[in-house]
Amino acid sequence: MESEALSALAGKLVPGRFYDGFFVSEYGRIEALRAARYNSAFSVVILTIDHGPAIDEGAGLEALKAAARACVDSIRNCDVAGLTGDGQITVILPETDWFGSLAATRKISKAVSANLLRARGQPSAILSNATFPKDGRGYGEVVSAALKRASDRKGSRWEKDGFRNKLFWEILGDLTGAGQKGAGCATFDAGANQDLNEFFLDQINDFVAKEVLRSPQRRGIAYFAFRDIDPGLPLLKSLNSAGALSAKVFLVGEGGSRSIEVKNATPILLDDPRLRETSFTFYLSEESGYALVCKENWGETFSCFHTSDEFLVEGLITKFQNEYSLQEQLG
Question: Which of 216, 274, 226 is closest to 250 using CA atoms?
Answer without folding.
Answer: 226
